[in-house]
Amino acid sequence: MPVSEIDSNLDTVGPYNRLSASQVNTYNSCKRMWFYEKVLKLKIKQIPVLYVGRAVEEAICRTFKESPSILLANASQDTLSKIPLDRDGKPSRAADITWPANRIIPLPDDKVPKSLEQLEAWAKKRMEAHLRTALMQARKDWERQERKSGDWSEINFDYCLEMCYNALKYHLKEVENCFSNIDDSILSNWRSGTREHWPAPDGYGYTINGRHPLAKQGKVTILEAWEIARPWFVEPEAGQFSMNAIHPNHWFQGEYDLVYRWNGSIKIVDIKASKGIGDRSGDYVEQLRMYAMLWWTTHNKKEVVSELEIWYLGADVIKPIANPTVSEMIEMENHLEGLWHEIKSQKSSIEKYPAKPSPVRGFSEGGVSIDAPSDEKRCDRCDWVSFCAGGQGLEYREPESNYQLPGMATETKPVKFNKLTVRFNICANIDAINYRENDSPEVKIIQDGFRATIDFRVSLTESGEPNYPSGLRKNDVIYLENVIISSNYKGELIIKIDPFAKILANPNEIDYPDSLLNFRARWDIVGKLAYKFSRSGIGKNGREWHRKGLVIFDNEQSIKVSGWTNDWGHQYEMAKEGDYVLLSNIELDAWADQLRGQVGRNSRLDIVSD
Questions:
Q1: DSSP E strands: which ranges in 554-610?
Q2: Pairwise CA distance, residues 334 & 420, whole Å
């Protein structure tokens, strides 16, 4: 199975603390880079190519999902969209739901492709339509990013489409192989409506009652081969990271691009919208080897992957990767589990991760290994070179505990990051509750005469469970665990429920001693500046809005602070990456394991050292 279904009650790691192939590769490239990106959660510059790759893959998968037996080449791109999803974003297994393809009558024989060439022509038209939509959405996503960099006008649609066509060409070879060599029992099972537990997305859902609607008689047809050879991939409409494969002990996860399995063997394909030139090609090889190990461990160590391939769509090259042996996978599993214990199961501090990157590797077009470039260092292309000790910066040092700021009569004493309190465990009564259809309820609580409103930012906890019990009523005693307290512009208390927080009807084995009065409205903090960012747009009232902010860090965590442009002082523009800045009188809250801050009219920023 390409997707793991785990019991959240047995998952002691949680989705936010697993290892992934990208984390492992980053760690092997540079331990300090891993610390910046995975512990401090600093966000790399968002260049267009990152979003183009996702758009290309989406266009490919949406085309593979469709069937020429039910869709004309000029059919709406949304015909198979709006599939039913469950609460955690997976395609729903509810038995009483009709899937999109079930509503469509198969096309008459004179309206469908008759040959591989006609099938290719149909698929190319579908790909072009899907790519246009995917690129438009990718551009919108890129433009919303605070750290966007580069120029979208440099994106060439024809080049992106050619990459899609290359993927189609590779896939049609699989279809042709299926058409020529399919086993009678495989064909018979498919025609009878037999489905995998996780079927390849095709708009029909998990089960088919009786004979497959697109099944024919006699020898397999080319259109049946298209259906049968379809690889598994992540349903394009599924929630982000909802369809991961997860190690049985929960410490590693991954998401396969394509899994071919129609003939009983397993081929995992990694799609790369690139030419395969440069150091990253080495990471892709290791990623696929880790995925082979993941498949093996999630199938009771009885099913070994047959083939591994990287599709370098920009170079029009398929690069086969040697399958790891069972002994190599055992060694890999043990090494990665040890790595998880070393870097994920305990609190990390910057001193443990030296700024000593590994040498840059050399690869030519198609991911062909060549001699490493002698004049290139990994730091040359690192987003953190300006403040990292391995690049142009200095090692992190503890800031001072007191500051005498200009114009201030008394000293400012910033609070260390690990002493900041934004989460609380509270026992309170429901003061009012209003249930809403298909949404979390409106809830107000009261504690010792003080009131607060609950703001549900999500409907599920990090483990995928509902974050409030059913049947809550006015005056019920409830237990709010790990919730965030903040205030709105009116000064009213708001209790935020994010993936780390929940409401219980009965207490867990922890104390709930906090009072609403424990909430502190303003804080003073000091940290090293990682980067600044800005965003702007048009509000619902038609007026322009502008916000900007920064991310600062200490030796263990970072804080993202933002605010309206007019609320930042003149020193904001003067501050440079690597400077130590003091932020006074700011509000704090959080999202998951990321602390967040908000500057207001009475906040100030001071550069305290460069």
A1: 558-564, 580-591, 594-598, 604-609
A2: 37
> 259 and 2 in contact (C-beta within 8 Å)?
yes
Q: What pLDDT band is residue 327 in, cutting at 50, 70 and 90?
A: very high
- The pair of structure tokens assigned to 133 is 């939509």
Pick 376 or 298 by higher pLDDT: 298
CATH architecture under which domain 1-41+244-395 falls = Alpha-Beta Complex (3.90)
Does residue 518 contact residue 511 with C-beta atoms inside 8 Å? Answer: no
Three-state DSSP class for 173?
Answer: helix
**What is the 8-class DSSP label of residue 460?**
B
Structural contact between residues 54 and 138, judged by C-beta atoms closer than 8 angstroms: yes
Q: Are 239 and 89 in contact (CB under 8 A)?
A: yes
Indicate if the alpha-carbon torsion angle 328, 331, 334, 337 is positive or negative. negative
What share of the chain has pLDDT > 70, as a percent?
A: 100
Contact 505, 469 (CB under 8 A): yes
The CATH 2.40.50.140 portion of the chain extends over 422-518, 523-609
SS3 percent helix, strand, coil of the chain, rounded to 5, is 30, 25, 50
pLDDT tens by residue, 548-599:
999 999 999 999 999 999 999 899 999 999 999 999 999 999 998 889 999 9
Binned at pLDDT 50, 70 and 90, residue 345 comes out as: confident
Confidence tier at 459 by pLDDT (50, 70, 90): confident
Whole-angstrom CA distances from 152 to 18, 344, 530 are: 33, 36, 25
Q: Residue 538 is which amino acid?
A: I
**What whole-number distance in Å separates Cα of residue 328 and Cα of residue 365?**
28
Q: What pLDDT was estimated at residue 433?
A: 95
Amino acid at the residue 311: W
Tokens at 232, concatenated: 């598994």
Q: How far apart are CA 313 and CA 311, in angstroms?
A: 6
CATH 3.90.320 domain position(s) in the chain: 1-41+244-395
Residue 16 to residue 458: CA distance in whole angstroms:
15
The domain made up of 422-518 is a member of CATH 2.40.50.140: yes
Q: Name the DSSP letter for residue 306.
A: -
**What pLDDT digit, counting tens, does each position of 90-129 carry?**
999 988 899 999 999 999 999 999 999 999 999 999 999 9
Supply φ then ψ for residue 277, to 5 degrees.
-90, 135
- Nearest residue to 350 via CA among 103, 194, 557: 557
pLDDT tens column, 101-111? 999 999 999 99
Architecture of the structural domain at 523-609: Beta Barrel (2.40)
> What are the tokens at 315?
């170079």
| Mean pLDDT taken over the chain | 94
List the structure tokens of 161: 């489409």
